[in-house]
Specification:
Blueprint (H helix, E strand, L loop, with lengths): L7 H10 L2 H8 L3 E3 L2 E4 L11 E4 L4 E4 L5 E2 L1 H9 L3 H11 L10 H24 L5 H9 L4 H7 L2 E3 L5 H8 L4 H7 L2 E3 L5 E3 L4 E7 L5 E8 L7 E3 L15 H11 L2 E4 L2 H9 L5 E3 L7 H8 L4 E5 L4 H16 L3 E4 L8 H8 L2 H8 L2 E2 H12 L5 H16 L4 H14 L4 H15 L8 H12 L6 H10 L5 H17 L4 H6 L4 H13 L5 H30 L4 H21 L10
Bound molecules: zinc ion.
Length: 585
Protein backbone atom coordinates (compact mmCIF):
# COMPACT_ATOMS: atom_id res chain seq x y z
CA UNK A 1 0.00 0.00 0.00
CA UNK A 2 1.38 3.40 -0.87
CA UNK A 3 2.23 5.71 1.96
CA UNK A 4 2.76 2.81 4.34
CA UNK A 5 3.67 4.67 7.49
CA UNK A 6 2.97 2.09 10.14
CA UNK A 7 4.43 -1.22 11.10
CA UNK A 8 2.30 -4.24 10.25
CA UNK A 9 1.97 -4.96 13.98
CA UNK A 10 0.48 -1.54 14.62
CA UNK A 11 -1.94 -1.94 11.77
CA UNK A 12 -3.03 -5.32 13.08
CA UNK A 13 -3.45 -3.89 16.56
CA UNK A 14 -5.74 -1.15 15.28
CA UNK A 15 -7.69 -3.57 13.10
CA UNK A 16 -8.24 -5.89 16.00
CA UNK A 17 -9.37 -3.11 18.31
CA UNK A 18 -11.74 -1.60 15.77
CA UNK A 19 -14.75 -3.89 15.61
CA UNK A 20 -16.27 -3.59 12.16
CA UNK A 21 -19.87 -3.65 13.40
CA UNK A 22 -19.18 -0.91 15.90
CA UNK A 23 -17.31 1.27 13.41
CA UNK A 24 -19.74 0.95 10.51
CA UNK A 25 -22.64 1.27 12.96
CA UNK A 26 -21.27 4.64 14.02
CA UNK A 27 -21.50 5.91 10.43
CA UNK A 28 -24.72 4.38 9.16
CA UNK A 29 -27.81 2.62 10.51
CA UNK A 30 -27.32 -1.13 10.65
CA UNK A 31 -29.67 -3.94 11.56
CA UNK A 32 -28.98 -7.39 12.96
CA UNK A 33 -30.19 -10.08 10.59
CA UNK A 34 -29.32 -13.59 11.69
CA UNK A 35 -25.62 -13.77 12.44
CA UNK A 36 -24.85 -10.83 10.14
CA UNK A 37 -25.81 -7.18 10.03
CA UNK A 38 -27.43 -5.46 7.04
CA UNK A 39 -27.73 -1.84 5.96
CA UNK A 40 -28.58 0.38 3.05
CA UNK A 41 -25.32 0.60 1.15
CA UNK A 42 -23.58 3.95 1.66
CA UNK A 43 -21.68 3.54 -1.61
CA UNK A 44 -24.57 3.28 -4.02
CA UNK A 45 -28.17 4.43 -3.79
CA UNK A 46 -30.67 1.69 -3.03
CA UNK A 47 -34.02 1.17 -1.37
CA UNK A 48 -33.57 -2.39 -0.12
CA UNK A 49 -30.51 -3.19 1.97
CA UNK A 50 -27.91 -5.27 0.13
CA UNK A 51 -24.97 -4.24 2.29
CA UNK A 52 -23.96 -7.03 4.69
CA UNK A 53 -21.46 -6.99 7.56
CA UNK A 54 -20.02 -10.19 8.95
CA UNK A 55 -18.93 -9.79 12.60
CA UNK A 56 -17.37 -13.22 12.45
CA UNK A 57 -15.12 -12.48 9.47
CA UNK A 58 -14.85 -8.75 10.20
CA UNK A 59 -15.58 -7.85 6.60
CA UNK A 60 -18.43 -6.25 4.69
CA UNK A 61 -19.81 -6.79 1.22
CA UNK A 62 -22.48 -5.10 -0.86
CA UNK A 63 -24.39 -7.47 -3.09
CA UNK A 64 -25.66 -4.51 -5.06
CA UNK A 65 -22.53 -2.66 -6.11
CA UNK A 66 -19.75 -5.00 -5.06
CA UNK A 67 -18.18 -2.67 -2.50
CA UNK A 68 -16.35 -4.76 0.03
CA UNK A 69 -13.45 -4.87 2.41
CA UNK A 70 -12.57 -4.56 6.07
CA UNK A 71 -12.83 -1.78 8.62
CA UNK A 72 -9.98 0.20 7.00
CA UNK A 73 -11.47 0.07 3.52
CA UNK A 74 -14.77 1.23 4.92
CA UNK A 75 -13.28 4.29 6.60
CA UNK A 76 -11.14 5.01 3.52
CA UNK A 77 -14.13 4.98 1.20
CA UNK A 78 -16.61 6.61 3.53
CA UNK A 79 -14.33 9.41 4.63
CA UNK A 80 -12.42 9.61 1.35
CA UNK A 81 -9.07 9.27 3.03
CA UNK A 82 -6.02 7.18 2.23
CA UNK A 83 -4.98 4.06 4.08
CA UNK A 84 -2.63 5.78 6.51
CA UNK A 85 -5.29 8.33 7.39
CA UNK A 86 -7.86 5.59 7.99
CA UNK A 87 -5.44 3.84 10.35
CA UNK A 88 -4.90 7.11 12.17
CA UNK A 89 -8.62 7.86 12.50
CA UNK A 90 -9.31 4.43 13.97
CA UNK A 91 -6.20 4.45 16.16
CA UNK A 92 -7.28 7.74 17.67
CA UNK A 93 -10.78 6.46 18.27
CA UNK A 94 -9.52 3.36 20.07
CA UNK A 95 -6.76 5.13 21.95
CA UNK A 96 -3.90 3.36 20.22
CA UNK A 97 -0.71 5.34 19.79
CA UNK A 98 0.65 5.19 16.27
CA UNK A 99 3.72 7.12 15.32
CA UNK A 100 3.88 8.56 11.84
CA UNK A 101 7.39 8.29 10.57
CA UNK A 102 8.24 11.01 8.16
CA UNK A 103 10.37 9.35 5.51
CA UNK A 104 12.50 11.12 2.94
CA UNK A 105 9.66 10.67 0.50
CA UNK A 106 7.48 12.82 2.73
CA UNK A 107 10.17 15.45 3.06
CA UNK A 108 10.48 15.77 -0.71
CA UNK A 109 6.72 16.03 -1.05
CA UNK A 110 6.60 18.75 1.58
CA UNK A 111 9.36 20.72 -0.15
CA UNK A 112 7.64 20.36 -3.51
CA UNK A 113 4.38 21.60 -2.02
CA UNK A 114 6.23 24.73 -0.91
CA UNK A 115 7.59 25.25 -4.43
CA UNK A 116 4.10 24.79 -5.86
CA UNK A 117 2.60 27.25 -3.39
CA UNK A 118 5.23 29.77 -4.39
CA UNK A 119 4.56 29.22 -8.09
CA UNK A 120 0.83 29.43 -7.49
CA UNK A 121 1.18 32.91 -5.94
CA UNK A 122 3.48 33.89 -8.79
CA UNK A 123 0.98 32.84 -11.49
CA UNK A 124 -1.89 34.46 -9.63
CA UNK A 125 -0.03 37.74 -9.28
CA UNK A 126 0.82 37.81 -12.98
CA UNK A 127 -2.77 37.27 -14.06
CA UNK A 128 -3.62 40.54 -12.38
CA UNK A 129 -0.52 42.41 -13.63
CA UNK A 130 -0.42 44.41 -16.83
CA UNK A 131 1.59 41.52 -18.30
CA UNK A 132 -1.42 39.30 -17.81
CA UNK A 133 -3.87 41.47 -19.71
CA UNK A 134 -4.05 39.10 -22.65
CA UNK A 135 -4.71 36.18 -20.33
CA UNK A 136 -7.37 38.07 -18.42
CA UNK A 137 -9.02 39.06 -21.71
CA UNK A 138 -9.09 35.43 -22.70
CA UNK A 139 -10.67 34.45 -19.37
CA UNK A 140 -13.29 37.16 -19.84
CA UNK A 141 -13.96 36.10 -23.40
CA UNK A 142 -14.61 32.57 -22.18
CA UNK A 143 -16.96 34.10 -19.59
CA UNK A 144 -15.06 32.69 -16.64
CA UNK A 145 -15.94 34.86 -13.66
CA UNK A 146 -13.74 36.13 -10.83
CA UNK A 147 -15.07 33.64 -8.32
CA UNK A 148 -14.24 30.69 -10.57
CA UNK A 149 -10.76 32.05 -11.22
CA UNK A 150 -10.17 32.15 -7.46
CA UNK A 151 -11.77 28.81 -6.66
CA UNK A 152 -9.86 26.91 -9.35
CA UNK A 153 -6.58 28.77 -8.98
CA UNK A 154 -6.32 30.08 -12.53
CA UNK A 155 -3.19 32.10 -13.18
CA UNK A 156 -0.83 33.33 -15.85
CA UNK A 157 2.76 32.46 -16.75
CA UNK A 158 4.28 35.51 -18.50
CA UNK A 159 6.26 35.40 -21.75
CA UNK A 160 10.01 35.04 -21.43
CA UNK A 161 12.28 32.18 -20.46
CA UNK A 162 13.14 32.83 -16.84
CA UNK A 163 10.51 34.86 -15.00
CA UNK A 164 9.56 32.13 -12.55
CA UNK A 165 13.14 30.88 -12.40
CA UNK A 166 14.48 34.26 -11.33
CA UNK A 167 11.72 34.87 -8.81
CA UNK A 168 12.29 31.43 -7.28
CA UNK A 169 16.04 31.98 -7.09
CA UNK A 170 15.45 35.21 -5.25
CA UNK A 171 13.30 33.26 -2.84
CA UNK A 172 16.20 30.88 -2.26
CA UNK A 173 14.53 27.81 -3.76
CA UNK A 174 17.12 25.30 -4.91
CA UNK A 175 17.50 24.56 -8.62
CA UNK A 176 17.26 20.86 -7.96
CA UNK A 177 13.88 21.25 -6.33
CA UNK A 178 12.65 23.53 -9.11
CA UNK A 179 13.54 20.96 -11.74
CA UNK A 180 11.97 18.22 -9.65
CA UNK A 181 8.73 20.22 -9.47
CA UNK A 182 8.47 20.16 -13.25
CA UNK A 183 8.05 23.93 -13.34
CA UNK A 184 11.60 24.49 -14.53
CA UNK A 185 13.21 22.50 -17.33
CA UNK A 186 16.88 21.67 -17.48
CA UNK A 187 18.13 21.58 -21.07
CA UNK A 188 20.84 19.15 -22.16
CA UNK A 189 23.21 22.09 -22.19
CA UNK A 190 22.51 22.55 -18.49
CA UNK A 191 20.59 25.76 -19.04
CA UNK A 192 17.43 26.20 -16.96
CA UNK A 193 14.21 27.73 -18.23
CA UNK A 194 10.50 28.11 -17.34
CA UNK A 195 8.20 25.28 -18.44
CA UNK A 196 5.22 27.59 -18.87
CA UNK A 197 5.66 30.72 -20.98
CA UNK A 198 2.78 32.92 -22.07
CA UNK A 199 0.24 30.40 -20.92
CA UNK A 200 -2.98 30.47 -18.93
CA UNK A 201 -2.36 28.30 -15.88
CA UNK A 202 -4.69 25.69 -14.40
CA UNK A 203 -3.98 24.31 -10.93
CA UNK A 204 -4.39 20.66 -9.97
CA UNK A 205 -5.43 20.05 -6.38
CA UNK A 206 -5.45 16.74 -4.58
CA UNK A 207 -8.54 15.85 -2.54
CA UNK A 208 -7.04 17.55 0.50
CA UNK A 209 -6.79 20.81 -1.40
CA UNK A 210 -3.02 20.83 -1.79
CA UNK A 211 -1.69 22.23 -5.04
CA UNK A 212 0.03 19.27 -6.63
CA UNK A 213 0.56 20.31 -10.26
CA UNK A 214 -0.15 22.79 -13.02
CA UNK A 215 -1.15 22.78 -16.66
CA UNK A 216 -0.94 25.62 -19.14
CA UNK A 217 -2.98 26.62 -22.17
CA UNK A 218 -1.05 28.44 -24.89
CA UNK A 219 -2.23 31.99 -25.49
CA UNK A 220 -0.10 32.39 -28.59
CA UNK A 221 0.59 29.86 -31.32
CA UNK A 222 2.78 27.66 -29.15
CA UNK A 223 2.39 23.92 -29.37
CA UNK A 224 1.01 21.94 -27.69
CA UNK A 225 -2.12 23.91 -26.97
CA UNK A 226 -2.34 22.29 -23.53
CA UNK A 227 0.82 21.48 -21.64
CA UNK A 228 0.93 19.37 -18.48
CA UNK A 229 3.91 19.20 -16.20
CA UNK A 230 5.53 15.79 -16.08
CA UNK A 231 4.88 13.48 -13.15
CA UNK A 232 6.46 14.35 -9.82
CA UNK A 233 6.41 12.66 -6.41
CA UNK A 234 3.36 14.85 -5.71
CA UNK A 235 1.58 14.39 -8.99
CA UNK A 236 0.61 11.10 -10.54
CA UNK A 237 -1.48 11.86 -13.58
CA UNK A 238 -3.31 8.57 -13.50
CA UNK A 239 -4.56 9.22 -9.97
CA UNK A 240 -5.58 12.84 -10.42
CA UNK A 241 -8.82 14.32 -11.69
CA UNK A 242 -9.12 18.00 -12.48
CA UNK A 243 -11.91 19.59 -10.45
CA UNK A 244 -12.45 16.70 -8.03
CA UNK A 245 -11.39 18.77 -5.05
CA UNK A 246 -13.88 21.55 -5.85
CA UNK A 247 -16.63 19.16 -6.89
CA UNK A 248 -16.36 16.28 -4.44
CA UNK A 249 -19.02 17.44 -1.98
CA UNK A 250 -21.55 18.01 -4.76
CA UNK A 251 -20.63 14.66 -6.33
CA UNK A 252 -21.31 12.84 -3.10
CA UNK A 253 -24.49 14.79 -2.38
CA UNK A 254 -25.99 14.21 -5.81
CA UNK A 255 -24.55 10.71 -5.99
CA UNK A 256 -23.41 11.25 -9.53
CA UNK A 257 -20.52 12.82 -11.36
CA UNK A 258 -20.28 14.44 -14.77
CA UNK A 259 -17.09 13.56 -16.58
CA UNK A 260 -15.90 15.95 -19.29
CA UNK A 261 -12.81 16.18 -21.45
CA UNK A 262 -11.48 19.69 -21.02
CA UNK A 263 -10.76 22.29 -18.35
CA UNK A 264 -12.93 24.87 -20.08
CA UNK A 265 -15.89 22.49 -20.26
CA UNK A 266 -15.54 21.85 -16.58
CA UNK A 267 -15.32 25.51 -15.64
CA UNK A 268 -18.36 26.41 -17.76
CA UNK A 269 -20.41 23.61 -16.20
CA UNK A 270 -19.31 24.41 -12.68
CA UNK A 271 -20.16 28.05 -13.14
CA UNK A 272 -23.57 27.15 -14.52
CA UNK A 273 -24.32 25.30 -11.30
CA UNK A 274 -23.25 21.77 -12.30
CA UNK A 275 -20.73 21.44 -9.52
CA UNK A 276 -20.55 17.66 -9.55
CA UNK A 277 -18.08 17.56 -12.40
CA UNK A 278 -14.51 16.40 -13.11
CA UNK A 279 -12.30 16.58 -16.22
CA UNK A 280 -9.98 13.86 -17.46
CA UNK A 281 -7.94 16.64 -19.03
CA UNK A 282 -5.94 15.55 -22.02
CA UNK A 283 -5.14 12.02 -20.91
CA UNK A 284 -7.39 9.06 -21.47
CA UNK A 285 -9.19 7.82 -18.41
CA UNK A 286 -7.27 5.43 -16.16
CA UNK A 287 -8.20 2.75 -13.63
CA UNK A 288 -6.68 4.90 -10.90
CA UNK A 289 -8.95 7.82 -11.77
CA UNK A 290 -12.02 5.57 -11.82
CA UNK A 291 -11.12 4.17 -8.41
CA UNK A 292 -10.60 7.65 -7.07
CA UNK A 293 -14.03 8.72 -8.27
CA UNK A 294 -15.68 5.62 -6.87
CA UNK A 295 -15.04 6.90 -3.38
CA UNK A 296 -17.62 9.61 -4.04
CA UNK A 297 -20.19 8.00 -6.30
CA UNK A 298 -20.81 4.97 -8.46
CA UNK A 299 -22.79 6.87 -11.09
CA UNK A 300 -20.79 8.63 -13.78
CA UNK A 301 -22.18 10.67 -16.66
CA UNK A 302 -19.70 10.81 -19.50
CA UNK A 303 -20.02 13.89 -21.66
CA UNK A 304 -17.32 13.80 -24.27
CA UNK A 305 -17.19 15.66 -27.56
CA UNK A 306 -19.64 14.36 -30.12
CA UNK A 307 -16.90 13.84 -32.72
CA UNK A 308 -15.46 10.43 -33.47
CA UNK A 309 -12.45 10.58 -31.16
CA UNK A 310 -14.87 11.71 -28.45
CA UNK A 311 -17.12 8.72 -29.09
CA UNK A 312 -14.17 6.34 -28.96
CA UNK A 313 -12.93 7.93 -25.74
CA UNK A 314 -16.43 7.53 -24.28
CA UNK A 315 -16.50 3.84 -25.16
CA UNK A 316 -13.10 3.29 -23.64
CA UNK A 317 -14.14 5.27 -20.59
CA UNK A 318 -17.22 3.11 -20.22
CA UNK A 319 -15.22 -0.08 -20.03
CA UNK A 320 -12.78 1.40 -17.53
CA UNK A 321 -15.61 2.64 -15.34
CA UNK A 322 -17.45 -0.68 -15.53
CA UNK A 323 -14.33 -2.65 -14.73
CA UNK A 324 -13.88 -0.55 -11.63
CA UNK A 325 -17.42 -1.05 -10.40
CA UNK A 326 -19.02 2.19 -11.53
CA UNK A 327 -22.17 2.60 -13.62
CA UNK A 328 -21.57 4.85 -16.61
CA UNK A 329 -24.19 6.84 -18.49
CA UNK A 330 -23.49 8.72 -21.68
CA UNK A 331 -24.62 12.24 -22.43
CA UNK A 332 -24.78 12.64 -26.18
CA UNK A 333 -24.12 16.16 -27.37
CA UNK A 334 -25.88 16.86 -30.60
CA UNK A 335 -24.39 18.76 -33.51
CA UNK A 336 -20.73 18.41 -32.59
CA UNK A 337 -20.90 20.90 -29.76
CA UNK A 338 -19.10 20.69 -26.46
CA UNK A 339 -20.68 21.40 -23.05
CA UNK A 340 -18.99 24.81 -22.89
CA UNK A 341 -20.63 25.93 -26.18
CA UNK A 342 -24.06 24.62 -25.25
CA UNK A 343 -24.13 26.40 -21.93
CA UNK A 344 -22.84 29.67 -23.40
CA UNK A 345 -25.37 29.68 -26.21
CA UNK A 346 -28.41 28.11 -24.60
CA UNK A 347 -27.95 28.32 -20.87
CA UNK A 348 -28.04 25.49 -18.37
CA UNK A 349 -31.51 24.12 -19.07
CA UNK A 350 -30.73 22.11 -22.23
CA UNK A 351 -27.81 20.53 -20.48
CA UNK A 352 -29.96 19.65 -17.50
CA UNK A 353 -32.28 17.88 -19.94
CA UNK A 354 -29.38 16.02 -21.51
CA UNK A 355 -28.33 14.71 -18.11
CA UNK A 356 -31.87 13.57 -17.50
CA UNK A 357 -31.89 11.74 -20.81
CA UNK A 358 -28.40 10.34 -20.53
CA UNK A 359 -28.11 6.86 -21.95
CA UNK A 360 -27.33 3.94 -19.69
CA UNK A 361 -24.19 2.17 -20.91
CA UNK A 362 -26.24 -0.81 -22.08
CA UNK A 363 -28.29 1.38 -24.41
CA UNK A 364 -25.23 3.27 -25.59
CA UNK A 365 -23.42 0.02 -26.36
CA UNK A 366 -26.42 -1.37 -28.22
CA UNK A 367 -26.76 1.76 -30.31
CA UNK A 368 -23.06 1.67 -31.08
CA UNK A 369 -23.19 -1.99 -32.13
CA UNK A 370 -26.24 -1.41 -34.30
CA UNK A 371 -24.40 1.38 -36.09
CA UNK A 372 -21.45 -0.89 -36.76
CA UNK A 373 -23.09 -4.24 -37.48
CA UNK A 374 -25.97 -5.24 -39.69
CA UNK A 375 -28.62 -6.65 -37.37
CA UNK A 376 -30.34 -8.36 -40.33
CA UNK A 377 -27.26 -10.41 -41.10
CA UNK A 378 -27.31 -13.62 -38.95
CA UNK A 379 -23.55 -13.60 -38.31
CA UNK A 380 -23.55 -9.95 -37.24
CA UNK A 381 -26.66 -10.51 -35.21
CA UNK A 382 -25.06 -13.31 -33.22
CA UNK A 383 -22.11 -11.02 -32.57
CA UNK A 384 -24.42 -8.28 -31.30
CA UNK A 385 -26.30 -10.66 -29.00
CA UNK A 386 -23.07 -12.07 -27.64
CA UNK A 387 -21.57 -8.64 -27.04
CA UNK A 388 -24.74 -7.41 -25.35
CA UNK A 389 -24.96 -10.50 -23.15
CA UNK A 390 -21.45 -9.76 -21.99
CA UNK A 391 -22.22 -6.08 -21.39
CA UNK A 392 -25.32 -6.92 -19.36
CA UNK A 393 -23.43 -9.46 -17.28
CA UNK A 394 -21.51 -6.53 -15.78
CA UNK A 395 -24.66 -5.41 -13.96
CA UNK A 396 -24.44 -6.89 -10.52
CA UNK A 397 -27.92 -6.15 -9.26
CA UNK A 398 -30.15 -9.06 -10.27
CA UNK A 399 -33.39 -7.13 -10.66
CA UNK A 400 -31.69 -4.47 -12.71
CA UNK A 401 -29.97 -7.06 -14.85
CA UNK A 402 -33.27 -8.78 -15.59
CA UNK A 403 -34.74 -5.45 -16.59
CA UNK A 404 -31.96 -4.89 -19.11
CA UNK A 405 -32.27 -8.40 -20.49
CA UNK A 406 -35.93 -7.71 -21.24
CA UNK A 407 -35.21 -4.30 -22.69
CA UNK A 408 -32.41 -5.42 -25.01
CA UNK A 409 -34.27 -8.56 -26.07
CA UNK A 410 -37.22 -6.40 -27.01
CA UNK A 411 -35.08 -4.03 -29.02
CA UNK A 412 -33.39 -6.87 -30.89
CA UNK A 413 -36.71 -8.69 -31.31
CA UNK A 414 -35.33 -11.85 -29.78
CA UNK A 415 -36.52 -14.10 -27.03
CA UNK A 416 -35.18 -13.15 -23.58
CA UNK A 417 -33.90 -16.69 -23.06
CA UNK A 418 -31.51 -16.29 -26.00
CA UNK A 419 -29.91 -13.36 -24.27
CA UNK A 420 -30.06 -14.76 -20.76
CA UNK A 421 -28.76 -18.05 -22.12
CA UNK A 422 -25.57 -16.24 -23.08
CA UNK A 423 -25.71 -14.21 -19.94
CA UNK A 424 -25.85 -17.24 -17.70
CA UNK A 425 -22.75 -18.72 -19.29
CA UNK A 426 -20.96 -15.43 -18.91
CA UNK A 427 -22.15 -15.20 -15.33
CA UNK A 428 -21.15 -18.72 -14.45
CA UNK A 429 -17.74 -17.91 -15.67
CA UNK A 430 -17.35 -14.89 -13.46
CA UNK A 431 -18.54 -16.70 -10.35
CA UNK A 432 -15.14 -17.37 -8.93
CA UNK A 433 -14.88 -20.61 -10.79
CA UNK A 434 -11.16 -20.97 -11.16
CA UNK A 435 -11.47 -21.63 -14.89
CA UNK A 436 -12.21 -18.05 -15.90
CA UNK A 437 -9.69 -16.31 -13.64
CA UNK A 438 -6.37 -15.18 -15.02
CA UNK A 439 -3.46 -17.04 -13.52
CA UNK A 440 -2.58 -14.06 -11.29
CA UNK A 441 -6.13 -13.82 -9.98
CA UNK A 442 -6.22 -17.54 -9.43
CA UNK A 443 -3.01 -17.49 -7.42
CA UNK A 444 -4.11 -14.50 -5.34
CA UNK A 445 -7.47 -16.10 -4.55
CA UNK A 446 -5.73 -19.29 -3.53
CA UNK A 447 -3.35 -17.44 -1.26
CA UNK A 448 -6.23 -15.63 0.45
CA UNK A 449 -7.99 -18.96 0.98
CA UNK A 450 -4.92 -20.27 2.73
CA UNK A 451 -5.44 -17.73 5.50
CA UNK A 452 -8.62 -19.66 6.36
CA UNK A 453 -6.76 -22.94 6.42
CA UNK A 454 -3.08 -22.29 7.22
CA UNK A 455 -2.54 -26.00 7.78
CA UNK A 456 -2.14 -26.32 4.02
CA UNK A 457 0.34 -23.47 3.85
CA UNK A 458 3.39 -25.53 2.91
CA UNK A 459 1.57 -27.42 0.22
CA UNK A 460 0.50 -24.19 -1.47
CA UNK A 461 3.78 -22.37 -1.01
CA UNK A 462 5.75 -25.21 -2.54
CA UNK A 463 3.31 -25.59 -5.39
CA UNK A 464 3.50 -21.91 -6.30
CA UNK A 465 7.24 -21.85 -6.03
CA UNK A 466 7.66 -24.97 -8.12
CA UNK A 467 5.30 -23.75 -10.82
CA UNK A 468 6.95 -20.32 -10.79
CA UNK A 469 3.58 -18.70 -10.18
CA UNK A 470 4.65 -17.08 -6.94
CA UNK A 471 4.62 -13.35 -7.68
CA UNK A 472 5.49 -10.49 -5.31
CA UNK A 473 1.96 -10.00 -4.05
CA UNK A 474 1.41 -13.69 -3.39
CA UNK A 475 4.74 -13.97 -1.65
CA UNK A 476 4.07 -10.96 0.55
CA UNK A 477 0.66 -12.24 1.60
CA UNK A 478 1.93 -15.77 2.26
CA UNK A 479 4.76 -14.44 4.36
CA UNK A 480 2.30 -12.41 6.38
CA UNK A 481 0.04 -15.42 6.89
CA UNK A 482 2.98 -17.48 8.08
CA UNK A 483 4.15 -14.84 10.53
CA UNK A 484 0.70 -14.49 12.01
CA UNK A 485 0.11 -18.21 12.12
CA UNK A 486 3.42 -18.94 13.80
CA UNK A 487 2.69 -16.37 16.44
CA UNK A 488 -1.01 -16.78 17.14
CA UNK A 489 -1.85 -20.03 15.32
CA UNK A 490 -4.65 -18.26 13.62
CA UNK A 491 -4.97 -15.60 10.96
CA UNK A 492 -7.64 -12.94 10.60
CA UNK A 493 -8.89 -12.90 7.06
CA UNK A 494 -9.82 -9.23 7.48
CA UNK A 495 -6.13 -8.45 7.96
CA UNK A 496 -5.14 -10.48 4.93
CA UNK A 497 -7.55 -8.51 2.76
CA UNK A 498 -5.54 -5.42 3.62
CA UNK A 499 -2.54 -6.81 1.82
CA UNK A 500 -4.20 -6.54 -1.57
CA UNK A 501 -3.59 -3.03 -2.82
CA UNK A 502 -5.57 -3.32 -6.01
CA UNK A 503 -9.19 -2.34 -5.33
CA UNK A 504 -10.89 -4.67 -7.76
CA UNK A 505 -8.71 -7.50 -6.56
CA UNK A 506 -9.59 -6.80 -2.95
CA UNK A 507 -13.28 -6.73 -3.84
CA UNK A 508 -13.05 -9.98 -5.76
CA UNK A 509 -11.34 -11.72 -2.87
CA UNK A 510 -13.65 -10.28 -0.20
CA UNK A 511 -16.68 -11.35 -2.21
CA UNK A 512 -15.24 -14.85 -2.56
CA UNK A 513 -14.58 -15.14 1.16
CA UNK A 514 -17.95 -13.67 2.00
CA UNK A 515 -19.86 -16.23 0.03
CA UNK A 516 -17.68 -19.16 1.07
CA UNK A 517 -19.29 -21.68 3.39
CA UNK A 518 -16.91 -23.17 5.93
CA UNK A 519 -17.76 -26.73 4.97
CA UNK A 520 -16.83 -26.02 1.34
CA UNK A 521 -13.38 -24.70 2.11
CA UNK A 522 -11.42 -27.97 1.72
CA UNK A 523 -13.12 -28.67 -1.59
CA UNK A 524 -12.52 -25.17 -2.86
CA UNK A 525 -8.85 -25.24 -1.87
CA UNK A 526 -8.36 -28.48 -3.73
CA UNK A 527 -10.15 -27.01 -6.72
CA UNK A 528 -7.80 -24.05 -6.78
CA UNK A 529 -4.71 -26.16 -6.24
CA UNK A 530 -5.70 -28.43 -9.12
CA UNK A 531 -6.30 -25.43 -11.31
CA UNK A 532 -2.83 -24.08 -10.57
CA UNK A 533 -1.39 -27.47 -11.40
CA UNK A 534 -3.38 -27.52 -14.62
CA UNK A 535 -2.08 -24.14 -15.70
CA UNK A 536 1.49 -25.10 -15.08
CA UNK A 537 1.12 -28.45 -16.82
CA UNK A 538 -0.46 -26.80 -19.83
CA UNK A 539 2.45 -24.42 -19.99
CA UNK A 540 4.85 -27.36 -19.89
CA UNK A 541 2.79 -29.00 -22.63
CA UNK A 542 3.15 -25.96 -24.84
CA UNK A 543 6.90 -25.90 -24.32
CA UNK A 544 7.14 -29.57 -25.17
CA UNK A 545 5.14 -28.95 -28.31
CA UNK A 546 7.66 -26.34 -29.41
CA UNK A 547 10.59 -28.58 -28.56
CA UNK A 548 9.09 -31.45 -30.53
CA UNK A 549 8.51 -29.26 -33.54
CA UNK A 550 12.05 -27.97 -33.41
CA UNK A 551 13.51 -31.48 -33.29
CA UNK A 552 10.98 -33.28 -35.41
CA UNK A 553 13.66 -35.08 -37.43
CA UNK A 554 15.47 -36.48 -34.45
CA UNK A 555 13.61 -39.42 -32.92
CA UNK A 556 16.06 -39.72 -30.06
CA UNK A 557 15.00 -36.33 -28.80
CA UNK A 558 11.36 -36.45 -29.81
CA UNK A 559 10.40 -39.82 -28.31
CA UNK A 560 11.04 -38.95 -24.64
CA UNK A 561 9.33 -35.62 -25.16
CA UNK A 562 6.27 -37.34 -26.59
CA UNK A 563 6.28 -39.66 -23.62
CA UNK A 564 6.30 -36.75 -21.22
CA UNK A 565 3.45 -35.20 -23.14
CA UNK A 566 1.45 -38.35 -22.77
CA UNK A 567 2.10 -38.38 -19.07
CA UNK A 568 0.98 -34.78 -18.75
CA UNK A 569 -2.17 -35.54 -20.73
CA UNK A 570 -3.09 -38.34 -18.36
CA UNK A 571 -2.46 -36.20 -15.25
CA UNK A 572 -4.50 -33.42 -16.78
CA UNK A 573 -7.31 -35.83 -17.46
CA UNK A 574 -7.36 -36.79 -13.79
CA UNK A 575 -7.39 -33.12 -12.82
CA UNK A 576 -10.23 -32.51 -15.23
CA UNK A 577 -8.29 -30.10 -17.40
CA UNK A 578 -7.93 -31.80 -20.74
CA UNK A 579 -5.83 -30.34 -23.50
CA UNK A 580 -8.10 -29.13 -26.30
CA UNK A 581 -8.12 -31.68 -29.13
CA UNK A 582 -6.87 -29.09 -31.64
CA UNK A 583 -3.98 -28.27 -29.33
CA UNK A 584 -2.65 -31.79 -29.59
CA UNK A 585 0.40 -32.25 -31.74
ZN1 LIG B 1 -23.45 -0.97 -2.64
Amino acid sequence: MSGFYFSQDKIDEVREAADIVEVIGSYITIKKTGKNYTALCPFHSEKKPSFVISPEKQIYHCFGCGASGNVFTFVMNYESVNFAEAVEILAKRYGIKVKVSSGTDDKIKKSLLKVNNFAFDFFKKHLNNTSGKKALDYVKKRKINRETVELFGIGYAPSGWSNLLNAARKEGISEKLLVQSGLIVKADSGKLYDTFRNRLIFTFYNTRGEKVAFAGRALGDDEPKYLNISETPLFKKRFTLYGLYQGKDAIRKEDRCLVVEGYMDLLALFQAGFKNVVAVSGTSLTDGQAQLLRKYTRNVYISFDADNPGKKAALKGISIFINNGLTPYVITLKGGKDPDEIIKKEGSEPFQKMIKHAEHFVDFKLRYLLSRYDAENPVDRTEIVKEMARTISYIKDMTERQMWVSSVARKLSIDETVLSGYRITAKQKSQFLPSILSSDELVHNLVALISLNPARYNEVYELLEETELLDDVAEKVLLYIKTRFDRASEVDVADVINMYENNSERERITAMIFSLKKENLPKMLTQYINKVKTISLKKRWENLKKEIKKNENDNNIVLPLLKEQQKIASILKKLGGNIDPEERV
